[in-house]
Amino acid sequence: MIIVARKNITADQIDYIRERVEAAGLRTHISIGETRTIIGCIGDEARLAGVPLLSIPGVYSVHPVMRPYKLAARDFSADPTTVVRVGDHGFGGTKCLVAAGPCSVEGSGMMSKTGRAVAASGASLLRGGAFKPRTSPYSFDGLKEQGLKILARIRSETGLPIVTEVMDPRDAELVASYADMLQIGARNMQNFALLREVGQLQRPVLLKRGMSATLKDLLLAAEYVMSRGNMQVVLCERGIRTFGAETRNTFDLAAVPWLKKETHLPVIADPSHAGGRRDLVAPLSYAALAAGADGLIVEVHPDPETALSDGDQSLTFTGFDDLMRGLAVFAEAAGRSL
Amino acid sequence: MIIVARKNITADQIDYIRERVEAAGLRTHISIGETRTIIGCIGDEARLAGVPLLSIPGVYSVHPVMRPYKLAARDFSADPTTVVRVGDHGFGGTKCLVAAGPCSVEGSGMMSKTGRAVAASGASLLRGGAFKPRTSPYSFDGLKEQGLKILARIRSETGLPIVTEVMDPRDAELVASYADMLQIGARNMQNFALLREVGQLQRPVLLKRGMSATLKDLLLAAEYVMSRGNMQVVLCERGIRTFGAETRNTFDLAAVPWLKKETHLPVIADPSHAGGRRDLVAPLSYAALAAGADGLIVEVHPDPETALSDGDQSLTFTGFDDLMRGLAVFAEAAGRSL
Amino acid sequence: MIIVARKNITADQIDYIRERVEAAGLRTHISIGETRTIIGCIGDEARLAGVPLLSIPGVYSVHPVMRPYKLAARDFSADPTTVVRVGDHGFGGTKCLVAAGPCSVEGSGMMSKTGRAVAASGASLLRGGAFKPRTSPYSFDGLKEQGLKILARIRSETGLPIVTEVMDPRDAELVASYADMLQIGARNMQNFALLREVGQLQRPVLLKRGMSATLKDLLLAAEYVMSRGNMQVVLCERGIRTFGAETRNTFDLAAVPWLKKETHLPVIADPSHAGGRRDLVAPLSYAALAAGADGLIVEVHPDPETALSDGDQSLTFTGFDDLMRGLAVFAEAAGRSL
Amino acid sequence: MIIVARKNITADQIDYIRERVEAAGLRTHISIGETRTIIGCIGDEARLAGVPLLSIPGVYSVHPVMRPYKLAARDFSADPTTVVRVGDHGFGGTKCLVAAGPCSVEGSGMMSKTGRAVAASGASLLRGGAFKPRTSPYSFDGLKEQGLKILARIRSETGLPIVTEVMDPRDAELVASYADMLQIGARNMQNFALLREVGQLQRPVLLKRGMSATLKDLLLAAEYVMSRGNMQVVLCERGIRTFGAETRNTFDLAAVPWLKKETHLPVIADPSHAGGRRDLVAPLSYAALAAGADGLIVEVHPDPETALSDGDQSLTFTGFDDLMRGLAVFAEAAGRSL
């Protein structure tokens, strides 16, 4: 932490700042400049997190210089990317993994059809929501445990591991008893009770970026899970909320390479929510792999026109098969496989 | 709902759209224009929420024309503002209510001092967090039930009703057993499990706007609570996340009069989080009352420099007393009292 | 400027950084910490503006500590607010000034009516656009010089000084020959050729904040004008572009008190563009004065329904008269007059 | 245009709305629903642009259904993409074009070196700013005409056509007399005087998206140029301003495929400004081609550490050569060449 003093700071004020910093267990280094005095704080910056430095008389500005996350930081791991295993596959290896399936588990038949279709096209995981977060209390919010049971049955049929969302800490164990990977949705990225709960389970976590979360916020959310002992976290860029009106969200593609440099956790993208439109899924998916993403999560539905949710952005089976063919080319261009 | 057709739509496609709309229980009215055909959907628009109209061939654009919330809408209530009673006071009456207190309940002594001070200056409620949402897992996250007990004791001492945050649906009953009003924080505005839970309790709810929530999203979050039977919801504008770098958040002041026209629920503002700086609290507070807010929630601490959280934006007792004097003048200018 | 080194920086790299900083005319102060080495740069930080410090091997982060503007900074002036005189009035004095009039000068008759009406209600200046920036090339873009002539005639009739927009550096002298105050619109806030041009004229400038301009950007735009010799700049908050969908722009009210602390230039608000809706003008105006604004610029039209532009947000004469009565009360509450 | 009436609209109000719409030259079609009356407006919607429909009593909401641009719209052209020729090359053909060079023309020697290097690596155009928009009036703002002369000389040396920025309408002819392609920078995207000026010149235009411009705004800016007769416009996504703090701007990748569907104009990307960091240039460039971009504009400098501007995001010659090798692979994956 670097503390920059106001021009007219007094010696007493400097002393007081030094005391406060040292009381938090850090040492200080005072540098008196022509126009400004600077107080460097040496030691563990996290200990200063609760100290309202800007409130102390004489302080002009405060500059953190250390990352606020540790377990999620790139240099925590010896490997550039930690491989997070789900079933026979691993996020973060040379193979780019694609999770595919409908927004919501609507019933057994449509899930069975979808599972077989996406497996045949080369998907590595099956997605599908049994608990659905919906902006309106009047919208369909999922089949709950019945949906989880359907997912488990389709896993038996297809061999595909299952990723599905958990929204309520009270449901975490239940969902984990059926699912291979737990999804934390964008709206719950800072639901700290939920993050702590999945941090105590030994199930890989797919953590989606919140709509107004900075990338540092996302890594701190991962840190919540990891600090409870669950190190198997995969991050997912799914678009942020900006003034942009033409797409459902703004796909922050640069998040992918930025995260790949900043953390050892695998990073995937969700082109369906990012663009919100079926015809944008393929170009956004190709771009994500080109930028270094370790995989994708894509919405696919047997008949998007009749989907109970997200029909506008779901691919048909044919559309998904075409996507996978296209992706194979871009994965290879990126030095990966599909 | 109005559906605008693509230029080259066929008669069969129009028929199919009509079928889908009518299957959802609405009637249609087709209007064939020079350049566009328009399909008006007559009836309860909410029934079309799950239908992916944009996916249907021939559809160019879809325009909702009804509000997606009912209980929260202005015309649900005979009165322009529903008064939400907490203790002896009511949010939404002629008196503007001020809730004041520290960000976190740090201990018994500081709460006692703060309670007495804010009561003396004219606060109507005491605020203080026992469960704290923190971006980092390494930050102080509150005294939990011990904090609730302290709050209850200070209520006895001062007579001030208590507003405090609930973060986890599992804690909702516990918090409600101590608190007079339940706060839902910005990060949990779309934590639907939590909204449903507090919707089942008979305790007034202070619902803060999420950092990237539109005002419609905020009203839909209120609708979650209300649709479970708890109609006592107070909305709170606390700043949104934008490119603006100079203040902690961007205080969306226009939210106050917009909401006052759109809903019958009382609307208050949180100038402490909006500005993030002690010296901005007074001007933002004055502005909120001038724009029609029904009250404020303000951070006050006996010694902001030593606060465990939000010290930079907390007022001292003197600062709060000065604020209340200033507010009295602006409340009067707005035809209210303090 | 403070330069924070990467953990593994070498002595040679430190030397090289020092050389580069000293070559720009500053001195350095090296502080070697436990986890980080910090290089403080002492002297005129502006000289480092062009040096790509982040590109130099060994550099982790760079923290400017000085304001990038000088003439616009609060401590450049002995007075807290510089009074910018226009006609008999001064922006920044105890009286809050209101500029009122239509979006566009549409003709002589409507301007004459409007001028008389707003003067009678107590406006201090008449606004009206002769050159109009329009998002579409097919929209009405103003009467040009004919509009300026009309404005000048209404000034004679009413005694109100005129504020009107200049969009093209080639028109600056022409506009200045008719107008008492030159408006720079939001879209031109970083039209540097235009800023330099009005900086060479001795006419007060009303500088509107750009839709995505930070407050530092706004002050740097003012600095462009001032650095050419024209110190008579009034800043205007008119709403920024965010995800917010319910109002035309997001009125960043906190900009008013933030600027009042950061600069000596007067600060006004434009509630018409901020809210985009007639019924929001009064609450936003009251809030602006409550937060310390030195005045307002408000759209008024004899018959908003027939206005050629911005009709939805224009007040009628009666509406403006009501506004002025309300404002008088809030101005007084703020210790000012109207 | 579709006009939705308030619930309680009267027959007289409907008649009045009809009159106003018909006065603008459109016909109306009234559809009386259960809860709402809808007035469809048939004919050229642009004629209603200036009519403040929301101001008319009885109007609840207004829904445009036609695109506000014509010349820029996809269906204006028989070909999916119009090829914009610059020198021997064409933006929008099978070959993806790369413009490369320094942010600013700093002198003859560095331009000569850069021109030769980027030509050798396969660039199609040379970029370099002679007139530079700078946020601060104290920053280096270019060599002006001397810079243009240097650019022209390097064109002779290397055969590369030149793209360079024009900021002031008074300089447009001068810049066009030296340059092969005129760049309009992000800050000037809505400098309508400048857009009109380059619309009258027969030089291809590279139009960069403004920092807070929607894609519709960008197409309307192109429409300004085209409506003056210059149809040779290439659009450029260069990042928008959002809350995102980790990169210089937020690269809105989805803009590329969205624009490719919406307009016949070629679309390129600027990965240097989007990411603001040298190590993000390659992944963002690969992603842009994968998403269908017709080319790139990239900053390259002989010695980025000593660059007078944008050094942090400029590639070295080696870095650019590596980029071009990588791009060739992704161009091929996208069915294009480099």
Largest interface in this structure:
A-B, 54 and 54 residues
Q: Kindly name the structural category of chain A.
A: alpha/beta
Mean pLDDT of chain A: 94
Question: Architecture of the largest domain in chain A, CATH level 2?
Answer: Alpha-Beta Barrel
Number of strands of chain A: 14
Q: Helix count of chain A? A: 10
Describe the sheet with the most strands of chain A.
8 strands, parallel
Report what the structure shows:
- Chain A has 338 residues and is of the alpha/beta class.
- The first copy, chain A, has two domains: 62 residues, Alpha-Beta Plaits (2-Layer Sandwich), CATH 3.30.70.1140; 260 residues, TIM Barrel (Alpha-Beta Barrel), CATH 3.20.20.
- Chain A is 33% helix and 18% strand.
- Chain A has an eight-stranded parallel beta sheet with strand order 13-12-11-10-9-8-7-14.
- In chain A, strand 2 and strand 3 form a beta hairpin.
- In chain A, helix 2 packs parallel to helix 3, helix 5 packs across helix 6 and helix 9 packs parallel to helix 10.
- Chain A is elongated.
- The model of chain A has no long low-confidence stretch (mean pLDDT 94).
- Chains in contact: A-B, A-C, A-D, B-C, B-D, C-D.
- At the A-B interface, helix 5 and helix 6 of A face helix 5 and helix 6 of B.
